Each structure stands twice: as C-alpha cells, then as structure tokens.
Amino acid sequence: MSAREFNFDGLVGPSHNYAGLSFGNVASFSNVKSASNPKLAALQGLAKMRALAARGFGQALLPPQDRPNFRLLRSIGFTGSDAEVLSKAAKEAPVILACAYSASPMWTANAATVSPSADSADGRTHFTAANLNNKLHRAFEHEQSARALRAIFKDEKHFAVHDALPGTPAFGDEGAANHTRLCKDHGSAGVELFVYGRTEFDASASAPKKYPARQTLEASQAVARLHRLSAERTVYVQQNPDVIDQGVFHNDVIAVGNANALFYHEQAFADEAGALDQLRRAMGAVGADLNAIRVDTAHVPVADAVASYLFNSQLLSKADGKMALVIPHECQEVTSVARYLENLVAGGSVIDELIHFDLRQSMRNGGGPACLRLRVALTEAEAAAMHQGVVMTEALYHTLVAWVEKHYRDRLEPADLADPQLAIEVHNALEELSRILGLPGLYD
C-alpha cells in the first residue's frame, strides 16, 4: 500500500528562551541566559514549513505547549495566585522557574516514537509519548504531547496513541531522536532501528563517563512491544558512549536515515560493523538493500558535526528517487562540513540536493532541523483521517505569521520569566491558536 511521509514540525512557542537547562547539549549550554527572540524563532520555523510544503513534501505542525507549567510549580509548594507563584519561584528557585518556562517542546523529534501501520501487527499507526525523564524541564511534556497527538490522530481505527513509559531511569525514553525507520518505500514494511545509550540492568555494559545516556535499551524494547513490531524487522544498536561524551546527546545528532539510506558518522555506534550487519539482514527481510553513507572522522571530526548539526538534518525522498538533505546555515560555516557536503552532492550519491534554512534561534538552543520535526508515514486513508487543521498550507502559513506578529515578543531576557504579564500573553496566544487550528480544548 502506498504511503506518504509527513513531517510534523514543532511550532515555537511565545516563551522561547535560552535557559541552558540541558546538560550534555553543548549548544544549549553555550547560550545560557542570553536574550532570545521568540518572534524570529517562530517565523524561522514557519518559513521552513512553508518552503517544504511548497516543494510538495508532506508538512504539518504540532502546537506549542502552555507555559509556564504552573502544575510543576504548584506541585513543589509554590502557592497563591499565578502572579504570586511566579514571584516566589523567581526569588527562591529561579532555575526551576526556567524549567517551568522551557521552550523545549518545539523539538518534536522528542515528542514520541512513531511506527507506521505497515510495521505494526494490528495495522495501525502507533505513537508512544516520550517520558523524557532525564531532565526536569522535559519530564512533564509527555502529558500534553499525548493530549495533542490524540487530538490530531483521534480515529482509533487508524491510530493508537500510548501514554509515556514509567518515569524511572530504567525506562528513559527520548522518542524519535533515537529511532530511525528504514524501508524500501514508506508504504511497505520497514526496519525500525532503536539506538540506546545504556542498559539499565547490565552493569558490565559500556556507558558514557561525562554526559548522561538518556535512552535505555529497556525503553526501546518496551516501545517496540507497545507498537507490536516484528522482531525480525526491529534492530537495537548501542550509541557510541565516547561520542555522547563529546556532546552527541541523541542519535539524531550523529546519524539520520530515510527510505533505504543511512547517513551516519564513523563514530556513531559502539559497534559499527555489528550495527550494519544487523541492519543489512533486517533490510533483506523486507526486500531492500541498505545504502550506508559513512562520514569518516578524517573528513568531519565529531566536534565539527556537533557544531554544524550536519546529521541533525532532514533527509527527504524526492519524486525522482533521489534525496534532499535539509540543513541549517551552520553547515556552510564549518569548513570541513561544507567541503564534505559539496563533494557528497557532486559525487553521485543518492543525496543530490542541499536545502538550507536559517534556524539560528533553534540552533542556539540546541536543536536543528531534525529536532524540529516528528516523522509520520501515512496512507491516503490515514492522512484523510487525521485532523486537517494542522496541515501546512499557504493560507495557514499567512494566518500563523499574523498570529505570531500579534502575540510574540521580539526579545526575551531571563528576568522576564518572572513577569506575570508574560504568562498572560502566552495563555491568550495559545487560546487563539487552538481556534485557528480547529482544536478546541487542546490546553488544560
């Protein structure tokens, strides 16, 4: 059965800020407490969505989450009116206030893991909201992520949306950022690749020494069970602990796959040869050959890959059978990466086009093009069954640009998080957005 891949980009919220909360994310830490521009961030993201939709790629969006997270603040003892809660938190626990205002839901690659109907035993598209329990500022996201996914994919004939795994270290789950689907085409059965950083119940297994490994093998296995995946077509591979310690906090910072192509760095996996062997055997089971595009350390050092977010790019299938790589401008500013990409597209690779976007507001907070999107392969019937109000069109683009211009600030300082007026502005903006998208009651 034929299917089309949709990319659901996270719409940047009105409280986009640089709090530097994500230990292990070099870009996020590097810009801690600097001023952000929420308006520009949202407009940059919308421009990317519009351009890709205009090219004929399936493009939709996931709405931002409400901020600040008053439920978090009240659950740890801050009381009174909303304004009083913010004032007390700003004085007594400013870092926790920053967690409550986190802009990280914009990175929808972490919202969930998705398995298309062609892969699942019950013939439905499955979503499991990621618990993101490694970081306080993200550990509450799964409730609204699941709520939004159920609003968009509410037809249970076609879709199954699962709640997050138990929020314990054993089941640390970071969603699609550590998951890749490889296939002959989007509508046929594929191979689901889960990349994990550590094993909870094997003390002898290797693990990073400096930065945390956020995804566990146990979590990946649990998601595969929930999605009713075939064991023959499911592969588990350990991420190289040494690259985690170099700032590669998710697999999508060091590898990206699409159709039968895996674009990856030499140091991506703990056992490169073993990983490729597993993938080739699994791909053979679906009648496809693995096209492994390896980037050698000699050509692009890991530090340059992290600085440019070369692998945190979108790899998109084009109508002519070739692929386009959606990259941030930073890839052109790192010499080794720019040189590599020039040779790649000129050298007869399946990747024959580079599409550049200015996503500096997202990049400075630690997320590139791949972080911003959740991939969902849908048949024609499934695409018709999902909520249509989130599908990017030219009309929706112009409506959302006007909405951003109306509601977003163009400068946000860390001290502004204590301003009760900011909370009111965010609430009013999201109430209007829910009407624009045709999703009443989206926010609790």
Could you explain the architecture of this structure?
The protein has 444 residues and is of the alpha/beta class. Helices cover 33% and strands 18% of the residues. The protein has a three-stranded mixed β-sheet with strand order 2-1-15. It starts with a strand and ends in an 8-residue tail after the last helix.
Task: Furnish the topology, listing elements before pairings.
Elements: E1 3-10, H1 26-30, H2 38-54, E2 58-62, H3 70-75, H4 82-92, H5 94-100, E3 112-115, E4 125-129, H6 141-152, E5 159-162, E6 179-182, E7 191-196, H7 217-226, E8 234-238, H8 241-244, E9 255-258, E10 261-265, H9 272-285, E11 291-295, H10 302-308, E12 314-317, E13 323-328, H11 335-346, E14 351-357, H12 360-364, E15 373-379, H13 380-385, H14 394-407, H15 420-436
Helix pairs in contact: 2-14, 4-5, 14-15
Describe the structure using short key phrases.
alpha/beta; 15 helices; 15 strands; three-stranded mixed β-sheet; 444 residues; L-arginine/glycine Amidinotransferase, Chain A
